[in-house]
Structure formats: structure tokens, C-alpha cells
Amino acid sequence: MGLLEAVAESTLEGLALASKSDPDGAVGRLQIVADLADPTIKRVGRFGWRATSASVVDQTAVALNADMGVTTRALPTHICGKATAGSDCRSQDGKGPELSDSDLELLVRYTSLLAVPATRHFDGEQPLGIHAEKILAQTPAETSLQVQAENMMQSSVARGRELFVQARCTACHAATLQTGRTHRFAELRGQTIRPYTDMLLHDMGAELADTYPQGRASQQEWRTPPLWGLGLVEKIDAKVRYLHDGRARTLEEAILWHGGQGQASRDRFKAMDADDRRKLIDFLRSL
Ligand code: HEC
């Protein structure tokens, strides 16, 4: 998360400007939000489904409060809905933050500095990894089958990456970004990252809309989600779901729901033959 935070606001402004002449009309907009600690400061939003948080600390404080009912100094009161004064919920307020600044800082450090998962099946990856004992424990025929399968997967992923670019998925899922030079964590500065997002808001059509516009974002606009780590989601959750409301059970379904500014790209995916569609999905699963 820290790497996404370390991308300069001017970089995102540049992406938004450049997208105005996008041939598919994939014009991205900046979400602008108030800094939680000092609301007079306006920042470019980049976290959350509608990019409503500008920083890891703000997103964490919002999630603690709105999702878990835990207050912090920045958000010291509970969200009690229609509960009346004196209710259990409201009577918890005024006791000071439930999570201290220093614990919040630890949470933020942890989520900021967690590594991005390595991609798999990239060109030249060792077919059997680094596990020599695996090779010793099996017959040469088994080994050769595994090497063959891995080589095929590598070429499928490489082709899928080209198809991803050709279908212009990268109009929004920007393959490469550069982090800025000023982030407080030196290890996040000046890096080339491949998050596959522009962190901008895009109109994804009526079918993906909900009824909850936020900040500058209409009910049809969503922030392009990063795709790094995408292929591992199914490994940690057999009942994996994609898109903001989890309506898609597979990556293919997630792509086919793209409407609005994503429609041209989706239609190119639909027009591919089954083999090419599989390769594009293999690429997504390698991330
Ligand atoms: C116009 C911008 C745009 C284009 C072009 C685009 N996407 Fe997306 N993509 C988005 C947005 C915005 C979302 C989130 C929508 C939502 O959650 O409702 C998304 C979501 C996804 C997801 C689900 C991610 C998740 O974690 O749930 C996948 C997979 C994906 N896109 C793949 C693709 C592929 C493949 C292409 C090209 C065929 C593509 N996208 C083209 C903007 C775009």
C-alpha cells in the first residue's frame, strides 16, 4: 500500500490529463478529498472503491471506525446511525480514542510496508523453482513433464500480457508507475512499480452502479483497482469474488461486467478466440 501512496499527486494529475484524449474515451478523473487530520488540506484520493482516502493512515482510520467501530484521534466518534443520545453506541463516545496514535502508526507501517507478492510464470522463471529436493524425489520423465508445462504457461502468460495491452486494458489498469522522491519511507521512493492501476475514477456504466456516490464520484464511477496480487486471491479464498460488490465469481465474469468507459476494452476481450481469452486470464492469474 505504501508504494501506491508514494506515487506523486502530480503523476496522477498527469495520467488524468493524458486520459482526456484516450481513443476509447477512458477519461479518468481525480477524486479530491480532505485530509482527515487537517480538513483544510485537499489531497488526491487513491484508496477505497471510490478513492475516498488519500493515505494509508486515513484509509485505516476510516476502516477501523466505519467497518469495525474502533475510534481513533482523527475519527473520535462512533457511527451510530439513528441511535439516540444515551444509547450504548453513543455513550461510548467522549472516552477518547480506542486505538492510540502509536498503535495506529504500527498498523499503518505494517500495511504500508507489506511486500507486493511476486509474479509467477514470468519469462525465464526457473521451471521447478529453487526446490532441488523436488527434482531428486521424482523420475526424470516427471521432471521433464513439469518443465514442459511450466514453459507452456510462461509463453501463455507472455502472450496474455500482449493481449492485455492490445485490448487496451492498460487505458485504466496502467501497467507501470513511478513512485516519487518524498515519501517518508525511503525504501518506497524512486521505484518503478507495476500495480496495473491509474488510481483514477472511471465511469463503468449503469450496470456496475450502486446508490452511494462519494465525494466527486458518481454512483457509476469507480477507482481502477490495482491488479497486483490478483492471481493469489483464489488461492487464499476458494469462494473468491471480484468487483466492488463481489458479483463476479471468476476473472472472466469481472471483465465481462466492464461497461461505460470499459466497454470498448471488454468488447475486444469478447471478440478474442477462446485460446486468447485463456491466455489473457493466465496473465491476470500470474499477477
Ligand atoms: C475504463 C477503465 C477500465 C478499463 C479499460 C478496464 N478496466 Fe478493469 N476495472 C476498472 C474498474 C474501475 C474496475 C472496478 C469496477 C468495480 O469494482 O465495480 C475494474 C475491475 C477489474 C477487475 C476486477 C478486480 C478485482 O479485484 O475485483 C479485473 C480482473 C479487471 N478489471 C480486468 C480488466 C481487463 C482484463 C481489462 C481489459 C479487457 C480491463 N479490466 C479494462 C477499470 C477498467
Description of the structure:
The protein has 287 residues and is mainly alpha-helical. The chain has a domain at 31-114. The protein is built from 11 helices and 6 strands. The chain has helices spanning 2-6, 9-19, 56-68, 88-91, 101-113, 132-136, 140-166, 230-236, 251-256, 263-271, 274-285, and strands spanning 32-34, 42-44, 177-178, 192-193, 201-203, 221-223. The strands form 3 sheets. It has a two-stranded antiparallel sheet. It has a two-stranded antiparallel ribbon with strand order 3-4. A two-stranded antiparallel ribbon has the order 5-6. α3 packs across α5 (101-113). The structure holds heme C. The site of heme C (HEC) has 27 residues, from α9 and α10.
Keywords:
287 residues; two-stranded antiparallel ribbon; 39% helix; binds heme C; mainly alpha; 11 helices
What kind of sheet is the major sheet?
A: 2 strands, antiparallel
SSE arrangement, N to C: HHEEHHHHHEEEEHHHH
Q: Low-confidence stretches at least 5 residues in length (pLDDT < 50)?
A: none
Number of DSSP helical runs: 11
Tell me which ligands are bound: heme C
C-alpha Rg, in Å? 22 Å
Level of helix content?
Answer: 25-40%
User: What integer is the average pLDDT?
Assistant: 94
Number of strands: 6
User: Structural class from helices and strands?
Assistant: mainly alpha
Overall body shape: globular
From the N-terminal CA to the C-terminal CA, the straight-line distance is 16 Å
Main sheet strand line-up: 1-2
How much of the residues is beta strand, in percent?
5-15%
